[in-house]
Design brief:
The complex is a heterodimer. By secondary structure, chain A is an alpha/beta fold. Chain A has 13 helices and 18 strands. In chain A, strand 9, helix 6 and strand 10 form a beta-alpha-beta unit. The N and C termini of chain A lie far apart (55 Å). Chain B is an alpha/beta fold. Helix content of chain B is 36%, strand content 19%. In chain B, the strands form 5 sheets. In chain B, strands 3-2-1-4-17 form a 5-stranded parallel β-sheet, sandwiched between helices. A 5-stranded parallel β-sheet of chain B has the order 6-13-7-8-9. In chain B, helix 4 packs across helix 8 and helix 6 crosses helix 8. Classes of the chains: A alpha/beta, B alpha/beta. At the A-B interface, helix 11 of A face helix 2 and helix 3 of B.
């Protein structure tokens, strides 16, 4: 059995699965149930300025009958009394001393307010602080949340205030509502932040009611941009995480990965791109805390199969595989192959290639079943047919190199090699 | 043993004749299946539908909540798409070709999804087609069955004024009169005919029989073109001794009575034998059982390999408790006091393949006898030979000879459906009606 425990800046948790700062972590009753279910840690829902929430708060994107591919929310930070939150945090730590307790913070924008809040939270015995520089709605109008994260210099200033006071590890949570997360990430690290976490939610409009014309979520005839999360945002989160892992400044600090993590596989992907722990919210909101069981077991089995003894053995392993486009090998060439014994004659590869790619599939008419074959000379090896085929391993991509040597675009140009003529 | 009606309680009749393939309970359950559809290209299901309904398209439209569009997609290819969703032997057509079968997964329930859309269209009386203004051309159609209605709808859409002559008092043809009541109810059939004719430009004259109330010559004289879609009707006789005994009935008439009347009033025997193994035989056997017959036996002269009904249909009969005797051909019917009491059968064996390609049954010389009080003949239907013989129409054993496009040997007279093919599925008749309509439009220079 592999050891799946995590050590994040000395904050230990029995597994790398934390619950992100959100409704599932806003009170003792939830957090205790999460710990009982097996979660390694929680980031307590953001404390700070006084707020009042509205109804409704969520909307979702469904896809082909699958509910909540993406979730959108306009809920604000914790609207419970600060004293109550602090007391409950203390009680949770006492009952589950082996779990990570991070508290998310968003104070009014003054040094004093931040210092005051940090002192109060540290009194609870919490293991770390997460700075919410990412909330994209409601708080931004008041100069908090994403507006801090969107300006590296403001972020730097606030992190400096925090570091003056904090005695426990500080994680800065980054907003994805920027063209690149790196400038703010760098500013935070340079200002002393011990770690980073990303991504917060992405501003979105999930849909519009076609009868009332009001976008959702609906609040008395109006709506606002909300924060998008869930499986739909995972690819964006992974890309942003990768840029943090590639930058020499931000790569120095540990990262907690967030954004659509729903399964152990998602978690492994975040870890392969440099995350030490992952934070989960939407999947728990959709299915409940019980999902952590399979996350732990799946991670453990995968590590055993791969021969990894501890999570540090594979964290960041995929980062070196991400390169610049101009370094890709142009001589690498693959062509599709259809296994006729597996083909169910749905024609999806054909029409995708015909209308969406390079017209490289032959259709041989049959009643009722057509036969589809690859025009190898035409196939550019784009993967589209393989991605669309509903049968596992029916379409495979077979390597047919254009030449034995590695040639990238720069070299290709230097040698004056021929471009496409069709 | 006796033949009598009123064998069951009202609840039992209701239960026995309720929908055999119930519709989806909700939008959600339809969407689960609609979303499973792979949206195949040049889809095998469409290619296996005699009317070539664009099935992936109509299913996609269900999944996007464009049910109106979905119903239009179905009806534009098959105006009896609602009825066909209940009576088509889909296991050998669209659903049988679904690519999921090749994955050993259940096929998409195409018929049920088709019913989902078409039923809403009928219930909400969606007007999905607009008739072009009348162009002053008139076409007469004989028979308000699937072929006639399908032909009429296409013609009327193009502005042709259509008059249908129907010998029965209701439209729908075999859909209304010859299919088991647990598949389509009389009420449904009536609604379907009304929905089709709501387009306008289609006038159905009921109780008008060709050769009796009207003649082909009259129609030819009074209309710009004629379409014959009068189907088949006469049950094939067994031509054995005792066929005239009381209790020996033909399946079409038996089913007709169930459909036309009230279940309680239809008499059925204690010990019923059904001769034949086609869809009509199955419909007769299962309905006899559902009317309260104690014992129903299907007798067929070949084996399961050669049976014309689908396995699914056979299973319905078996699940209803009907018994099957393979390789048995009726030889003699015996009776007492004018009522049938025994059926003597020849035990058969299979010999060389016949013209149909199926191995033909040969007598073994052995016989056996069944106690019966009712014998339902479902050994196939024969064409209206006399009617056809008395016309100038070219025919083959009473079946009108028509080209693929419906043209007969008489200019301006077209034919299609069972009266040409000798008896196939409703969906085949619908397509024949469409084909002829296209030819008629061409003939009329449109």
């Amino acid at each position: 059995m592999a050891d799946i425990s995590a050590n994040f800046l000395g904050i230990k948790s029995p597994n790398p699965f934390w619950l992100a700062s959100a409704p599932p972590t806003d009170k003792k009753i939830n957090v205790l149930r999460a710990f009982e279910a097996g979660w390694g840690g929680v980031v307590w829902k953001t404390l700070g300025s006084q707020v009042k929430n509205v109804s409704s708060r969520y909307s979702a994107v469904n896809y082909n009958g699958s509910k909540v591919m993406g979730l959108n929310n306009i809920e604000l930070i914790s609207d419970r009394p600060l004293e109550l939150n602090l007391r409950e945090i203390k009680e949770c730590i006492k009952l589950f001393p082996d779990r990570a307790m991070i508290v998310s913070l968003m104070a009014d924008n003054t040094r004093e307010k931040w210092h005051e809040l940090i002192a109060q939270v540290e009194d609870t015995g919490a293991h770390g602080l997460e700075l919410n520089f990412g909330c994209p709605h409601g708080m931004t109008e008041r100069g908090m949340g994403a507006v801090v994260g969107q300006d590296p210099e403001i972020a730097r200033l606030v992190v400096e205030w925090v570091m003056e006071k904090a005695t426990i590890p500080v994680i800065t949570k980054l907003t994805p509502n920027v063209h690149s997360v790196v400038p703010t990430g760098k500013a935070a690290v340079e200002a002393g932040s011990n770690a980073l976490s990303l991504i917060n939610t992405i501003q979105s409009v999930t849909g519009i009611d076609l009868d009332t014309f009001v976008p959702n979520p609906y609040v008395a005839g109006k709506s606002v941009f909300g924060g998008y999360c869930g499986p739909a945002v995972k690819p964006i989160a992974l890309k942003m995480l990768a840029t943090i892992s590639q930058d020499p400044v931000t790569a120095k600090v540990p990262v907690s990965g967030i954004g659509g993590v729903s399964t152990w596989k998602d978690a492994v992907e975040f870890m392969l791109l440099g995350a030490t722990t992952v934070q989960v919210c939407t999947a728990a909101m959709k299915h409940g805390f019980r999902i952590v069981e399979d996350m732990c077991e799946g991670l453990n089995n995968w590590m055993d199969e791969k021969g990894f003894k501890a999570i540090d053995d594979f964290i960041g392993k995929s980062v070196p595989h991400l390169t610049h486009w101009e370094e890709l090998d142009i001589n690498y060439h693959i062509v599709a192959n259809i296994d006729q014994t597996k083909c169910i004659h749905c024609g999806l590869c054909y029409i995708a290639c015909e209308d969406g790619s390079h017209q490289s599939i032959n259709l041989i008419y049959g009643k009722p079943y057509n036969t589809y074959t690859i025009k190898e000379d035409e196939c550019v090896g784009c993967n589209l047919c393989k991605l669309i085929c509903p049968v596992d391993d029916c379409i495979t991509m077979v390597e047919q190199r254009k030449g034995p040597d590695y040639v990238n675009w720069l070299e290709f140009q230097k040698r004056g090699l021929p471009l496409n003529d069709h | 043993m006796s033949i009598k009606n009123n064998r069951l309680t009202a609840e039992q009749y209701d239960q026995n004749f309720s929908d055999i393939h119930p519709p989806f309970d909700s939008r959600e359950s339809a969407l689960v299946e609609a979303n499973r559809c792979l949206f195949c290209y040049d889809a095998p299901c469409t290619k296996s539908c005699p009317t070539s309904i664009n099935i992936p398209k109509f299913i996609k439209q269900i999944s996007t909540d464009n049910v109106k569009g979905s119903a239009h997609t179905i009806f534009v290819s098959n105006i009896m798409g609602a009825g066909c969703s209940r009576v088509c032997p889909v296991e050998k057509l669209c659903e049988g070709a679904c690519v999921y079968n090749l994955l050993e997964e259940p096929p998409i329930p195409i018929a049920r999804l088709q019913r989902y859309s078409t039923e809403q269209a009928m219930e909400k009386k969606w007007k999905l087609f607009e008739r072009k203004p009348s162009i002053g051309k008139r076409v007469a159609i004989v028979g308000a069955g699937p072929a006639g209605l399908s032909c009429a709808h296409v013609l009327s859409r193009e502005g042709v004024d259509v008059t249908i002559y129907e010998k029965e008092s209701k439209g729908g043809g075999l859909m209304t009169y010859g299919i088991a009541a647990y598949k389509v109810t009389p009420r449904f059939c009536e609604d379907e005919v009304n929905y089709i004719t709501s387009l306008g430009g289609i006038d159905i004259k009921y109780n008008q029989e060709l050769g009796k109330n009207i003649s082909l010559q009259e129609l030819k004289n009074n209309y710009d073109a004629v379409f014959l879609g009068f189907g088949v009707g006469l049950a094939r006789q067994l031509d054995i001794q005792g066929e005239e005994l009381m209790g020996v009935v033909d399946a079409i008439k038996f089913i007709y009575n169930i459909r036309a009347g009230v279940y309680e009033e239809v008499p059925v025997g204690d010990k019923v034998v059904v001769i034949g193994m086609g869809m009509t035989a199955i419909d007769a056997a299962t309905q006899a059982k559902r009317l309260g017959a104690k014992d129903v036996t299907l007798v067929y002269r070949r084996t399961q390999e050669e049976m014309p009904c689908t396995e699914e249909e056979l299973n319905i009969a078996k699940l209803d408790g009907c018994r099957v005797i393979w390789l048995a051909a009726p030889a003699v019917l015996n009776g007492a006091n004018g009522k049938v009491t025994h059926l003597v059968c020849n035990l058969m064996q299979l010999g060389e393949p016949d013209v149909s390609g199926r191995r033909s049954p040969i007598e073994t010389g052995e016989t056996f006898t069944l106690d019966v009080d009712m014998v339902i003949k479902a050994a196939g239907q024969i064409p209206f030979s006399e009617l056809v013989n008395n016309s100038q129409l070219q025919h083959s054993n009473g079946k009108i000879v028509a080209q693929k496009d419906g043209a007969t040997n008489i200019a301006g007279v077209f034919a299609g459906g069972d009266c040409v093919n000798g008896g196939k599925e409703v969906v085949d008749a619908v397509q024949a009606g469409k084909d002829s309509a296209a030819s008629i439009l061409k003939y009329l220079g449109l």
